[in-house]
Design brief:
Keywords: Hydrolase. This protein is of the alpha/beta class and 258 residues long. It has a single domain, classed as TIM Barrel. It contains 11 helices and 13 strands. A hairpin with a 5-residue loop joins β2 and β3.
């Protein structure tokens, strides 16, 4: 049965990667993973917003990709060492910081794809996601962390398990089993999607055989991060169910979807 997260939306799905931040050469005041970036994606018509979470020194789960502040602010501190209020001040001029709870409340019609970046988020995320489990997909490169976040959500009283995409171990097993013509049924149990780059470390992950195998077991294939229109169209025609992109506005104009 199709999870509600994947039901009733246009296809292929366009997932706004960290919202819709300023493109190069545009107003640089809208940064990734901010309230303004999510609002821009929502205004462009994106039904799905992809984001990431880290835990602050106060224990708040904020939508933030990196482990440290180095890339965005030139500050080597880990997010886990910074108070939430300080992060809010840092992001005030760039679109505004949001916690997971704030984002789910602020965008009640959006479907969120949340990458759990740290073990510290796996337990407390459950209570925040539980009331919204029908419109949340939880992912993590670490399948152990992903499963812990799902279990926490169910313990918090969710009426339905959030959707989920397989992490590294699931993707690796699917690639090998599909190449060997072996059944991945056990590996893909309770998996709704796999989210992969076309290639990783020189190895092609998005292959016709992997796509056919995933589809045969009711699992969608989403590809990241796709920003060129020619690639969006090519991947759509090759069977991609979802395009994860920094340019959701461009993707929505480019892809012909019924």
């Amino acid at each position: 049965m199709t999870h509600p997260y994947l039901a009733g939306t246009a296809h292929p799905r366009v997932l706004a990667h960290r919202g819709l931040a300023s493109a190069p050469g545009e107003d640089s005041s809208i940064w990734e993973n901010t309230a303004a970036a999510f609002a821009a994606a929502d205004a462009a018509g994106a039904e799905y917003i992809e984001s990431d979470c880290q835990v602050t020194a106060d224990g708040d789960i904020v939508l933030f990709h990196d482990e440290t502040l180095q890339r965005l602010f030139g500050d080597a501190r880990a997010v886990s060492e910074v108070r939430t209020l300080e992060l809010r001040r840092l992001f005030a001029d760039y679109g505004g910081l949001l916690t997971i709870g704030e984002a789910l409340d602020a965008f009640p019609n959006a479907r969120f794809n949340i990458d759990v970046k740290t073990d510290a988020a796996a337990e407390p995320i459950g209570a925040l996601v539980a009331p919204h489990a029908h419109r949340v997909l939880l992912s993590s490169f670490d399948d152990r962390c992903r499963r812990a976040a799902l279990a926490s959500t169910m313990r918090a009283g969710a009426s339905i398990r959030p959707a989920t995409s397989g992490g590294r171990s699931i993707i690796a097993a699917l690639r090998v089993l599909s190449a060997l013509h072996l059944s991945p049924a056990r590996v893909l149990r309770d998996i709704d999607a796999v989210q992969i780059p076309e290639k990783h470390s020189g190895v092609r992950l998005f292959t016709p055989r992997l796509v056919r195998t995933a589809h045969r077991f009711g699992v969608e294939v989403h590809v990241w991060t796709v920003n060129e229109t020619a690639d969006m169209l090519r991947l759509r025609d090759a069977g991609a169910n979802g395009i994860i992109t920094d340019r959701a506005d461009v993707a929505l104009r480019t892809l012909d979807r019924p």
